[in-house]
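Quick question about two entries, pasted in order.
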Amino acid sequence: MTERYDVAVIGGGPGGYVAAIRAAQLGLKTACIEMRQSLGGTCLNIGCIPSKALLQSSEKFAEARHSLAEHGVEIDAVRLDLGRMMARKDRVVTTLTRGVEYLFRKNNVDWLKGRARLAAPGRVVIESPQHQQREVEAAAIIIATGSESAALPGIAIDERRILSSTGALALDHVPKRLAVIGGGYIGLELGSVWQRLGAEVTVIELLDHIVPTMDRELAAALQRALARQGIASRLGAKLAGLDQRADSIGLEIEAAERHTIETDAVLIAVGRRPYTQGLGLEAVGVACDPQGRIVAGEGFATNIPGIYAIGDVIRGPMLAHKAEEEGVAVAERLAGQKPHINYAAIPAVVYTRPEVASVGQTEEELKAAAIPYRTGKFPFTANPRARTNGDTEGFVKILAETATDRVLGVHIIGPDAGTLIAEAALAIEFGASAEDIARTCHAHPTLNEAVKEAALAVAGRAIHI
C-alpha cells in the first residue's frame, strides 16, 4: 500500500532535516528522503563540518610550530600525522550525522533511504540503493536538495590532482604546491588548511578582490593577512588552460598578460549550483529560473500547489543556517503559523584565520543606494582579551544610518568573528541603534568589548582608542 504523510521532505541536509524535525514537532506525520547513507547533507558530510574540523586541526599544528614558544611552551619537534588528523575529522562527521539520526528517532521522523523523484503533485517515487522502487503520498512536498560544486568547462575533476572541495577534504598527502581557482569562502578556507600543513598556495580570482560578497575593506584586510601567512593571490586573473603532466600541472593564466603557473594540485572552488538533477521537476512543471534555481514565492511555495522549496535550490545565499531558518519557517507555515525571516539579519562567516564575519549591508551597498551612514571602527590591537590571547589582527566595523542611528551593517575581521557577529545579527533583527549596543554592558575582558567600542565610535566616543 502507498504510504501517506502530511509532509515529505526531499533532502536530509540542514534545511531538510530541520524542516522534517520541526514539522514532526508540530504534529505533522513526516518523512525525510535522503539518498546518502548518512543524514546531514553536504554540510555535515563533505562541507561545513569536515572543513571546520581540518581548519581547527591545522590551526593547532601551526600554533604548535610557530606560536606556543611565545607563551613559554617549548616543543622540540612538531610532526604532522595527516592520517590521524583525517581520522579525527571523520569521527566528528560520524558523530554529528548519527546525532541527526537520533533526532529523527526522537521526533518520529521516518527516514526513507533512496533517491527521490516527483511523480506528480503529492506523489514521490523513491529508488533505494538496491534499485527497488516505492511510492509515497504527501499533502506537502518540500524540496531541500541543496547544492553541488560548480565545474569549469573542459576541466575534469578526478579528486586526485584536480579537486573539488570534496577531494580537498580527503587528500592523503600534503601537496607541495596547490592552486585554488576562486577566492570565495570555500577556496580560502581549504587553501588555509593546506598552507598551514605545508603547501605553497596560490589563489586565482577572476575579480579584483577576494570574498566578493563581503565589505571591500574586510576583503582587502583579509587578503593582506593571508599574504603574510604565505598565501599568494592573483587577482583579475582567469584560468585559460590546464595542462596535466606526469609530475606537475601547468595552469595558463590570463591577466594583464598571459603566463603559466606550475602546481601539483588544483582546487576548483568557483562556487556552487543548485542540485536538482533527477528530481523530475520538468515532468511535474516546477518552474526554475535561468540559473537553475527553483522559483519559490510566498511561504516557499512553487508554482505547483503542494510543492515547496527551501535552501540552496532557491534564491539567496547558499548558507546552511539560511536553509535551517527556511526549514523551520516552511514547516510552521504548513502547520498554520505565520513565521517571518529577516534576510537582512543572516550572517556570513569565512573561517580563515583571522575569521571574517558580516551581517547586513556593506559600505558599497549603502553608497549604491545613496543611504547616509556613519561608521564606527575599533581595532583588536586595543582589546585587552585579544592582547592577552596574542591574537590582535583585525577590527570591528559598524555602519549606522545617519538620521536614526539604526545599525545597517556590521563587519568583523579578527579572532572569533563568527561568534561575535551573533550580537550584531540580533541588533539588526530587533532594529537596534548603535547607541543600544554601546550602552549595553559587555563583560571585561572579552573580545565582545570590541563590538561595544565600535558602536561607541559611531558617535565618536570610543573609550579605549
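Here is the second entry:
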Amino acid sequence: MADFDLLIIGSGPGGYTGAIRAAQLGLKVGVVEKNPTFGGTCLNVGCIPSKALLDSSEHFSEAQSGFSHHGIEVSNLKIDISKMMKRKNKIVKDLTDGIAFLFKKNKITSIHGFGVLTAPNEVEVTDLLDMKTKYSAKNIMLATGSVPTVSPALKTDGTNVLTSTEALSFEKVPKNMVVVGGGVIGLELGSVWLRLGAKVTVVEFTDKLAGSMDTQMCKELQKVLKNQGFEFHLNSAVTGVNVKGPGDVDVTVVNNSKDEKFNINADRVLVSIGRRPYSEGLGLEALGIKKDQRGFVKINDRFQTNVPNVYAIGDLVRGPMLAHKAEEEGISVAEIIANGHGHVNYNTVPSVIYTWPELASVGMTEEEGKATGKKLSVGTFPFMANGRARAMGSTQGMVKIIADADTDRVLGVHILGARASDMIAEAVIAMEFAATSEDIARSFHAHPTLAEVMREAALAVQKRARQM
C-alpha cells in the first residue's frame, strides 16, 4: 500500500489549504516542507510580515501627520524598529505555528526536508542531516510557489542590493532607497520605509505602475503616492549598480523615452522585478513533466501535469501569483482526487496593492473590456463625496464599475481607497453570481459606510449617482 493518498510538496497557502481539505475528505495526507516552518513565502517572508510592517508604518504616519486634524497632539514621536520587527516576527510565528497545529488536528503527516520526484508515485526527501527517505503516494501535488526574479545587471548581496525578503528585516530606516520595479512588492515595501522616513525612488521599466491593473486607477494611485513623497521614473531601466561601500550604492538609470542616462545614489536598493516559479530541482525533468519557457509547469484544466497523478498549483502554474488563487486551486485538487469534481473561477480572482489608499481589482480592466469589442458602461464615484470617508479623513480615490452595456452584467470592479482590500469582496461575490450594476445599486448598503461608494458607482453606471 502507498504511504499516502496525497503527498504535497510545499506548505504555502495552496499546499496547506489543499492538505487540510484533502484530510477533511478522508484522504491520508502528507506534506513535505524544506523550511523549518510551514506557510511558504506568504506567511514567512511575504504577505503576512509585509502587512504587519505596513500597519505599523501606517500608525506611525497617522500619528505624525494625521492625528493633528482630529485635535490630537503628539510630541516626541519616535520609532523603535527593533520592537516593530519583534511584533512582525511574533505574528508570523503565531500563524506558522497555527498551521502546524491544524496539521496535527487533521492527522496530516508533516515531513521536513527537500522533496524530489523520483517516480510518478514516489518522492525522496532529504532532511537537514542529509538523510534520504522515500515516500510513496497515489497522488502528488506540487505546491512549491515562486522566488524573486533575478537580473544579471542587479546582483543582490542581501545588504546593499537586496530582495523583498531582506527588506522586511532592516535594522534601521534607510536614508535613500531605490526600488527597482513599480509593482505590488515594490510599492508596498517602498510605502513602509517612506512612511518611516526614507526617501524612496521607484524605477519602472513600463509607462505605468501596478502592472496590468486598470490604467486610470494606476494613474490615480501614482498621483496619490507622489503626493506622499515617492519619486517615480517610468519608462526607465536600471542598467547597473555599483556598490562603492556599505550603504553606498550608485544606481545607473536609463530613461527609454528620453534616451537619458543618470545616476541615483542610495544606501539600499530593493530589486522587485517580479517572481518566477520554483520549478527547478524537483525532479520534473526525470519524469518528463513539461514546463513552458518561463519555467511554469504545464497543466490541464484539472491541474494535472502530463503525468496524470502528479498535480501542480499556485505560483508554479499559469495565472496570477496570488495566495488566494493558490488556495482555491489546492482545494480544487483535493476535491478532484476525492470525488472527481473541483472548480476555480479565474474571472473573479481579486488583486490588491496594500498601499494607502489601497488599490483593489477584480475582473476586466477598461482596456481589456474594450479589447473584447463589447460595448461598455462605466460608472465611477469618489470617496471625497462619501460621509464616512470624510469622517475618517480618508477621501482619496474612487470606485470604478465596468458593466456590459447590453446586459448590465458587471465585468470588472476597481477600487482605490481606504479599505479597498475589504470592499472588493462585495464585487467578487456580485460577479460570482453574475450580478448586474442594478443589482448592486438596489441592494442595501448601511449608512454611513465606505461601502456606499460601491453603490454610488453602480448608480453611476446608470447615470443616477448622487454626487455634489
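Reply: The chain has a mean pLDDT of 96. The chain has three domains: 4-148+276-346, 161-273, 357-461. Hope that helps.
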